[in-house]
Design brief:
- 33% of the residues lie in helices and 8% in strands.
- With 237 residues, the protein is mostly helical.
- A 3-stranded antiparallel sheet has the order 2-1-3.
- It is built from 6 helices and 6 strands.
- The protein has helices at residues 39-47, 49-56, 74-108, 114-119, 149-161, 219-226, and strands at residues 2-4, 12-13, 28-30, 187-188, 193-196, 211-214.
- The mean pLDDT is 88.
- The two termini are 32 Å apart.
- Strand 1 and strand 2 form a beta hairpin.
Length: 237
């Protein structure tokens, strides 16, 4: 298991095939159980609300080894371990399928590696990325990211290899695109509102920074703009 021991204390990860033999920063505490079949149980305990409360009381990683752990019966520990490993095995399979889907898309579009395209966009003799833009192509925008030549190069490849290029907002692609407006948030205790997640939480299957938005104060906004549904795509903006 991996456990953050600085910054945000207590974020736990179970190491499966996806992270096996990778290298992570020194801010991650490595925990190896004497009995490998206890790993899933310890992970589940540290991820629980009770475990997180205890971890948050230990500000420094040096005292994390003193965290108390309930010594449950072997049968219960094994059952929990099996469920955790099954969950992570499915995540590994999901990661492989996502990689395969991306490879198929790149191959069909005949899209070269981004590094190769990037070499054609900037001068190799400069330590910083500099490029020029014709004044008739500014379109009223002076932010460099809008005129990124790498994006232009990618789009050019797509135009050459795709049957058609259309915008994301085209009705053939999207039924609706919702950009919720900013608003003053009223948070309440668990049980009195709906879970409210920020952009950094969308990559977490079980976000550890749960907050609860008042349904009474934001009823219409929750129903019309904020509630997410299966098969939606979320993009941080």
């Amino acid at each position: 298991m991996l456990l953050t021991c600085s910054g945000t204390i207590g974020r736990a990860v179970y190491v499966s095939d996806t992270l096996d033999n990778k290298i992570l920063s020194h801010d991650m505490l490595r925990i190896t159980c004497k009995d490998p079949e206890d790993a899933g149980y310890i992970y589940a305990y540290l991820k629980s609300s009770a475990g997180q409360k205890i971890l948050s009381s230990f500000i420094y990683g040096a005292v994390i080894p003193n965290i108390p752990v309930p010594n449950a019966p072997k049968e219960l520990r094994l059952r929990i371990h099996e469920l955790i490993t099954k969950s992570y095995n499915l995540r590994d399979e999901s990661n492989l399928l996502l990689d395969e889907a991306e490879k198929i898309l790149i191959n069909e579009l005949d899209l070269p590696p981004i590094d190769e395209l990037e070499k054609t966009c900037y001068s190799e003799n400069l330590s910083v990325k500099i490029f020029s833009v014709d004044c008739n192509k500014l379109l009223g925008r002076f932010d460099a990211s809008f005129h990124n030549p790498l994006c232009s190069a990618i789009l050019e490849v797509l135009r050459e290899n795709a049957q058609e290029i259309i915008n994301l907002g085209d009705e053939r692609v999207s039924k609706k695109i919702i950009l919720p407006g900013r608003f003053k948030r009223v948070y309440v205790s668990e049980g009195y509102g709906v879970p409210f997640f920020g952009g950094r939480s969308i990559y977490q299957l079980d976000p550890d920074d749960k907050r609860y938005l008042s349904f009474a104060k934001h009823d219409d906004l929750i129903r019309e703009e904020l509630t997410i549904h299966k098969n939606m795509i979320l993009i941080t903006c």
